[in-house]
Each structure stands twice: as structure tokens, then as C-alpha cells.
Specification:
Elements (H helix, E strand, L loop, with lengths): L3 H32 L2 E5 L6 E5 L7 E2 L10 E6 L5 E6 L6 E6 L6 E2 L10 E6 L6 E5 L6 E5 L7 E2 L9 E7 L5 E7 L9 E7 L6 E2 L8 E6 L5 E6 L10 E6 L6 E2 L7 E5 L5 E6 L11 E6 L6 E2 L7 E5 L1
Antiparallel strand pairs: 1-2, 1-24, 2-3, 4-5, 5-6, 6-7, 8-9, 9-10, 10-11, 12-13, 13-14, 14-15, 16-17, 17-18, 18-19, 20-21, 21-22, 22-23
Length: 318
């Protein structure tokens, strides 16, 4: 028969274990988030190059060394297992999609965009890592395509150029079934007349989510739970550079503004969906000639600056 002392000790051990488990899980989750570093590109060293940093802005490391004056490597994005990085670069002539290991090694070119002054820019891995969506003007205008992670089996998903429009900025839904993207009423209009659409992963069932009219909404990013989409827009601004970050439900409803005008662009979710990283020219040039990287809570609160080096910082990807 167990003594009362042993029974009491056993109960106390169970209680402590129950209390300790959530604490350990929380600490493990925090440690896991710290390991999920932020990619970005910056012109601080001359050419636009790709860097990586910890979520608090520390431990910044340069990953690319693009040969040639005025050449750039930019628009980085993580593979789902965070072992590889896809990005765009014009190091070999046209802007193409490349892939490299997380430490910048094992560089490989994935696309070959034929034609003078043709380009391939934004890329996004599917959640299972088996496909990469990207935008390119290789055919009649800017369209969305999909390929295998080795650059093979390229297939066109959209056909907007026949009507004088263009498509870009792809982002996969967390379940891999849909792709959000931007449609340019005039591909040369930059920040004007751009709307966010969503379609099935095979290019079917395209539907418009935003109705910004003579302004623009672009760079959609699905939240990790798939319920909302964060994006940049100048819908409430008096100029093309008066950009803010907005949030909407995944069906386009319930649009709400997260940052004040001129205070944010290129938003990207943290892996746990609790924060959003973005670029902003806060206190700098109104024309976005300089911008730093910031992070905020998912509701737009608690904005904190992560970078402090002179030069332009763009395209963070968490």
C-alpha cells in the first residue's frame, strides 16, 4: 500500500507536469519562430542583394554576390521546408528565377525567358513544395505561370494580355488549392488600376476580390490559417505613393486598414500569423527612394523598426 506521502508526491508530480507542458510548448514555439528568419533584398552595398536576418532585425547576413555593376538579385521567397530560396536576378541578362540553398550556396537558374528585354520576376512555392508560381512577360504580356521546382514543366495559368491587362504577384493559399494575384488594367500604370484576384491552382475560376477603381491594390499574401489576405493599396491616398497596408477576408469582404497612409508596402505574414513584416519610408523620402523594414502585430499595432542602414530595403519574406 502506498503511503500518504508517496500519494501526495505523485499527485504533485502530475500537477507540475501538466503545468510545465504548456510552458515548454510555448518556449518551443518561440524558439521555432526565432529560427524562422526574414529574407529581404537591399541596395545598401551597391547592387541589390539578398540578405537574411533574425525576426528582431539582428544577425543580418548577405547571401548573394551578384556580378556586374547595376545588376540585382531581389524578390526572395522561402521554400516550405525553408531549405531553399527562390529569387529573381538579372545577373545573366534577362531577369530570371534562380534557386539556392538557405546559406546562399548551390545557385541554380530555373527559367530561361527568351526575347530581348523580357523578364521573369515574382515567384512563390506551393505549400507542398512541388510547384513554383511566377510572373513573366515572356509571351504577349505579364502573365502567371507554374513550373516544377527544377524549372521543368512550365505551364501558363492566365491569359490577360489579349485584353491589354497583365497579371503578377502570385501567392498560394495555405491548402494549395488557390492562388491570389494582382491584375493590372494597364501593365505600365504601376500603382494605378490594379486589383486583387484569386483563382484555382490550375488557373480556373478566376474572380476579383478588390474594387479599387482608379487606384490600386496589390501584393496579396494569405494568412497562415487561410482566413484573411493582407495587401498594399493606395485606395485612400491622394497620390500614387500614398500607400498603406490593408487586411480583408479571403473572399474580399471586411476590408480594414492596418497602417496609416504612406506607412507600408510589401506586407508578409510571420509563420505563426501573429505579425506582419513590411517596408516603409517612415520619416524618409515621400517618393520611396529610401525605405526600411518594419514589423507590426496582425491588427496593425506595435510597429517596430528592424533595419537602420542607409539605402533602400525591399521585399521582406518571413
Amino acid at each position: 500500500m502506498l503511503s500518504p506521502t508517496r500519494v501526495t508526491a505523485g499527485i504533485l508530480f502530475v500537477v507540475l507536469a501538466v503545468i510545465a507542458s504548456p510552458v515548454r510548448a510555448q518556449k518551443a514555439g518561440q524558439a521555432d519562430l526565432r529560427l524562422k528568419r526574414i529574407l529581404f533584398d537591399s541596395e545598401r552595398d551597391g547592387n541589390s542583394e539578398i540578405y537574411v536576418m533574425d525576426p528582431d532585425g539582428s544577425n543580418q547576413q548577405r547571401l548573394t554576390h551578384t556580378p556586374g555593376k547595376g545588376k540585382r538579385s531581389w524578390l526572395p521567397t522561402w521554400s516550405p521546408d525553408r531549405k531553399k530560396i527562390a529569387f529573381a536576378s538579372d545577373r545573366d541578362g534577362n531577369s530570371e528565377i534562380y534557386i539556392m540553398a538557405a546559406d546562399g550556396s548551390h545557385l541554380q537558374r530555373l527559367t530561361n525567358t527568351a526575347g530581348r528585354e523580357k523578364s521573369t520576376w515574382n515567384s512563390a512555392f506551393s505549400p507542398d513544395g512541388k510547384k513554383i508560381a511566377f510572373d513573366s512577360d515572356r509571351d504577349c504580356g505579364w502573365e502567371l505561370y507554374v513550373m516544377d521546382p527544377d524549372g521543368s514543366k512550365v505551364r501558363r495559368l492566365t491569359h490577360f494580355c489579349e485584353s491589354g491587362k497583365g497579371a503578377g504577384n502570385p501567392d498560394w493559399s495555405p491548402d494549395g488549392r488557390e492562388i491570389a494575384f494582382a491584375v493590372f488594367a494597364d501593365p505600365e500604370a504601376k500603382d494605378d488600376q490594379i486589383e486583387i484576384y484569386v483563382m484555382n491552382a490550375d488557373g480556373s475560376n478566376q474572380r476579383q476580390l478588390t474594387h479599387t477603381l482608379d487606384r490600386g491594390s496589390w501584393t496579396p499574401r494569405w494568412s497562415p490559417d487561410g482566413k484573411t489576405i493582407v495587401f498594399a493599396s493606395n485606395r485612400d491616398g491622394a497620390s500614387r505613393t500614398n500607400i498603406a497596408i490593408y487586411l480583408m477576408d479571403s473572399d474580399g469582404s471586411n476590408v480594414r486598414q492596418l497602417t496609416k497612409n504612406r506607412l507600408g508596402a510589401r506586407p508578409y505574414w510571420s509563420p505563426d500569423g501573429k505579425k506582419v513584416v513590411f517596408v516603409s519610408p517612415i520619416g524618409k523620402s515621400k517618393e520611396w527612394k529610401e525605405a526600411d523594414i518594419y514589423v507590426m502585430d496582425a491588427d496593425g499595432g506595435n510597429i517596430r523598426r528592424l533595419t537602420h542602414t542607409p539605402g533602400r530595403w525591399y521585399h521582406p519574406a518571413w
